[in-house]
Amino acid sequence: MKYLILDSTGSAVNEYADEVAAHVGLRNLVAEEPEAADHLALLAYGDDGQPVGGAVTFDDLPPSTTRVNQTAWVLVAHSCAFSLDVALDFPRYVPTPRRVVLDPPASASSPLAAA
Amino acid sequence: MRPRRVPGPERLDIRSLADGEEVVAYRIVRTEDRDHSAFERSFTSRAALGLPPRRGTPEERHPELADGLSAYRSREAAMGTALSLIERDRSVGEYIAKVVLRGGMGVRIAVWGPPGHLTIWGNALTLCQATVDIEAVSSPEEVPEDEVPDPRQHG
Predict the structure, then answer these.
(1) Which residues in chain A are contacts of B60 at CB distance < 8 A?
(2) Do the Cβ atoms of B101 and B72 come closer than 8 Å?
(3) CA dihedral in degrees (B56, B60, B61, B63; nearest 10)?
(4) Could you tell me if A74 and A101 are in contact, meaning their C-beta atoms sit under 8 angstroms apart?
(5) Closest listed residue to residue B117, CA positions, set B50, B69, B84, B66
(6) Residue B75 contacts by C-beta under 8 Å, 6 or more apart in sequence?
(7) Contacts of B14 (CB under 8 A, 6+ apart)
(8) Is any Cβ of chain B less than 8 angstroms from the Cβ of A25?
(9) Alpha-carbon gap: B20 to the closest alpha carbon of chain A (Å)
(10) Residues within 8 A of A (CB atoms), B 70-99 only
(11) Measured between CB atoms, which of A8, A47, A53 is closest to B92?
(12) Which of A13, A102, A107 to mutate to test the interface with B (most CBs of B within 10 A)?
C-alpha cells in the first residue's frame, strides 16, 4: 500500500509507505500551513495503483499520541504557546508534538535545575 | 541536530520522451469544455499558479515537482481518485482527460508514488492539445442510460 497526499490542483504533494507516516505527514503539512487543512487530502493506493477506501482529510485524522521515552526532551506545541515537558521514570503518552527534539544541545539547561 | 528527513522519493528520474515513444496519461480536469479557461488551468502547475513549494515535502528536495502535474497511467486510477476526492468535498475536477504524450512534444515525465502515478512537465497549451478524450467522473456502479440493456431484447 502507498499513500499519497494531493492538493487542490490535483497534484501529489508527498508519498508515504505507511499509514502512520502519512498521517504524521498530513499533520506536519497543516502545521506548516494551517490553511492547507482545507485543501489537502490523503489517499491510499493498492499494489495495482487503484485507490483503496476514501480520501482522508485533516479533520478525519484520529487523535494521536506519542510515546515519550526516558530522558527524552519533548517540545510540545500547544496552539501558539510552547511548553517544555520531560519524562523521567516511565514512558508517557502525550499529544503528538509538531517536532520531537531528541538529544538537546549541551548548552540547553534543564528546567528542573533552574527550578 | 539531525537533518530533517523529508519523505518522498530520494531520486526523481525525470526523462524526456524518446522520438516515437507514446505515453497515455489520465489527468483530472475541472471541465469538459476545451474552450473554457478552467480547462487550460487544469493543466497549469502549482508553480505556474504562483504557489510556492511546500515545506516538508519532496518539493523541497525536488523543487521542479511544483512545475509538474500529477496524472495516472490508468483511467480507473484517475477516476477512483477523482471520485474519492469528490466524496470528501475535496474535488479537483469532475472530468478525466485522456492525454497522449509523444516524443518531440517537449514533455517530460517522472514515475513516482503509487504504481501508475506520474508527474508530467509540459506547456499547459500543449497538454490541452494532446487531450484526445474527456470523460465525466462516474462511480463504477453508474451505468450510462444508453448502455443499460433493454430487457425486451432478452425475453
Answers:
(1) none
(2) no
(3) 150
(4) yes
(5) B69
(6) B26, B96, B98, B135
(7) B64, B108, B109, B110, B121
(8) yes
(9) 26
(10) 70, 72-74, 76-77, 80-81, 84-85, 87-88, 90, 92-93
(11) A8
(12) A13
Q: Report ipTM (2 d.p.).
A: 0.81
Contacts of B103 (CB under 8 A, 6+ apart): B16, B17, B18, B19, B20, B21, B22
In contact, B125 and B105? CB cutoff 8 Å: no
**A-chain residues near B117 (CB < 8 A):** 4, 12, 45, 49
Query: CA neighbours within 13 Å on the CB side: how many for A67?
Result: 4
Chain B contact for A72 (CB, 8 A cutoff):
no
B20 touches chain A (CB under 8 A): no
Answer yes or no: are the C-beta atoms of B1 and B108 closer than 8 Å: no
**A80, amino acid identity:** C
pTM: 0.74
Cα B22 to Cα A112: distance, rounded to the nearest angstrom: 66
Note whether B28 and B92 are within 8 A (CB). yes
Size of the A and B interface in Cβ pairs below 8 Å: 119
Question: Residue A28: how many CB atoms within 10 A of its CB?
Answer: 19
Residue from B26, B47, B8, B50 nearest B118 by CA: B26
Q: Answer yes or no: do A11 and B49 touch at CB < 8 A.
A: no
Q: What tens-digit pLDDT sequence spans chain B (155 residues)?
A: 444 555 566 678 899 999 999 999 999 999 999 999 999 999 999 889 888 777 767 777 778 888 999 999 999 999 999 999 999 999 999 999 999 999 999 999 999 999 999 999 999 999 999 999 999 998 766 555 565 555 555 43
The one-letter amino acid at B60: E
